[in-house]
Amino acid sequence: MSAKFTYTFIFSVVLALSSGQLVFAQHIPLNNNIKESLEQVKPDEIKGDITYLADDKLKGRLPGTEGYQMAVDYVIKRLKELNVQPAGENGTWLQKVFFRKAFTRNAVLSLSHGQTGELGIRNNSYVIYPNPAVAAVKISSSLVFAGYGISEPELGYDDYENIDVKGKTVIIMRGSPDKFSSSVAAHSMNTSTLLKVAAAHGAVGVILSTSDSTIKMLPNLSNGVYSVIDNEGKVAVSRTYDSSQLSFLASVKYEFLNLLFKGSGKTIESVAEKLKAGETQSFSLPSFGINVAYNSVYQDIVSYNVIGKIQGSDPILKNEYVVHSAHLDHLGIGKPVEGDSLYNGAHDNASGVASLLGIAKIYNHIKVKPKRSILIVMVTGEELGDLGSGYFAMHPTVPVKSMVADVNTDMPTIIAPLLSVTALGAEHSSLAKQVDEAAGYLGISVEPDPEPKQARFTRSDQYSFVLAGIPALHIKYGNKTADGKNNLNETVVKWRAKYYHKPQDDINGIFDFEAGKKYAQLNFLIGYLVAQGISRPVWNTGDIFSTNH
């Protein structure tokens, strides 16, 4: 360390956890000012921020509404109080995000089969997603079954290896090989990834299906599908549209896939079993053709990301940024549950925003800021498909290559003491080192994801940064409990069933604000260590995300 960043001591303490295990804290170079600043996070202030943001008068913070604007005004006021500087567009706190809400109209999908002619397909057995770029689409093509629609030759798996899909529609069975880790599987089978891969191989349409005959429901598109439009009117971010290469995206029921498989000499069950085992099963369907026609209508909405900056102290590294992100939006007013239709979003994600404000407060008390600068980014449209973060990650208000890492905060689930965590995504990059050091200092153990099937790594804003090539992570609760049973996940599952994406997620729910304080401290320390490090975080050699952006 240079003289101007001399540290007065290095903590190396043995911490006794409530489970009775002894864990040696990691060596973190922190001076007395940093230690004192960590204690500036106050549980009552976290509670106060959540209380305001989840108040009924904000009406669920839906992007484009008066309630969301009240949330924007509130967090800007708080950031100003904490001496954070504006880092939005044109010297403001804001980045405009133009949402296009699209609806499908007059959708018709039919199959043709050899000499038989057109086959009738019930209109309740499929849905066609609206097209945010082209208002009217009509297309016919041949069909190819493309397995899981995954192309990862570096991992020894490629559904497209022995098929030609140029000018054709691919039908994809949702899933991934069992050998894929949870985050790799989630990324590979993410709709936006499937579309990108299909387009790269020359497909003109994508149909998503299931191998599970018990699934009777199709995606409900009646409330519209959102994308982000840039200043030129072009699609900037979408989770259901890739490019003009692909004319349509549809989802179909099991019966549709079963119809295609009949006469192929294969069964859905046997194909699904082999795909799970990692054996590709792609094949053409030469006797079938597909015909699709539909219209799309639009509603355009303006919303905002809020961006603040804490200037770094190194004359060179201050031009690089560590991002702390959280989404400010929620679901607004929707379907009543137990007589309540206002979705307050206290945990999801007023608590995450409050945590970012806690991090800003810690920095406000640090006399010598870290070498790199810090961006506090509160994004819109996470509930619409990570769209505000997707736009910021691809079109940031700082140079794209200057962002070195993202530490995201989404619904930290502060309902019990924070004794252990899982760092979603940290296993893919050198950020795992900072996580271990920060958690060790606070006496928190780091565990594997207790719910890998939830695919949480690709379901929040950190994924937008990953897709932009920026190492990112998201800290979630672990399983450790104060009574030593270490079954917190069981409590969370019950909690989630009652509160997650329901009007009951208000300030009157279950909270542990001390856990909220510790969560903010942990995320601060991770970001601080990155900001002080000599080298930028890097993807692990050969990692899937080192090549997929």
Task: Give an overview of the whole structure.
The chain is of the alpha/beta class and 549 residues long. It has two domains: 3-92 and 311-547, Aminopeptidase, CATH 3.40.630; 100-299, Glucose Oxidase, domain 1. Helix content is 27%, strand content 27%. It has helices at residues 32-38, 43-53, 66-81, 182-188, 191-200, 254-261, 268-276, 346-364, 387-394, 431-442, 462-467, 488-499, 513-532, 544-547, and strands at 10-11, 14-16, 22-24, 28-29, 85-86, 94-113, 117-119, 126-128, 136-145, 151-152, 157-158, 169-173, 205-209, 225-229, 235-238, 248-252, 283-310, 321-327, 332-337, 340-343, 373-379, 403-408, 420-424, 445-446, 472-477. α10 (431-442) links the parallel β23 and β24. α2 crosses α8.
Secondary structure blueprint with pairings:
Blueprint: E1 10-11, E2 14-16, E3 22-24, E4 28-29, H1 32-38, H2 43-53, H3 66-81, E5 85-86, E6 94-113, E7 117-119, E8 126-128, E9 136-145, E10 151-152, E11 157-158, E12 169-173, H4 182-188, H5 191-200, E13 205-209, E14 225-229, E15 235-238, E16 248-252, H6 254-261, H7 268-276, E17 283-310, E18 321-327, E19 332-337, E20 340-343, H8 346-364, E21 373-379, H9 387-394, E22 403-408, E23 420-424, H10 431-442, E24 445-446, H11 462-467, E25 472-477, H12 488-499, H13 513-532, H14 544-547
Parallel strand pairs: 9-12, 12-13, 13-16, 18-21, 18-22, 22-25, 23-24
Antiparallel strand pairs: 1-4, 2-3, 5-17, 6-7, 6-14, 6-17, 8-16, 9-17, 10-11, 14-15, 17-21, 19-20, 23-25
Helix pairs in contact: 2-8, 2-13, 8-13, 10-13
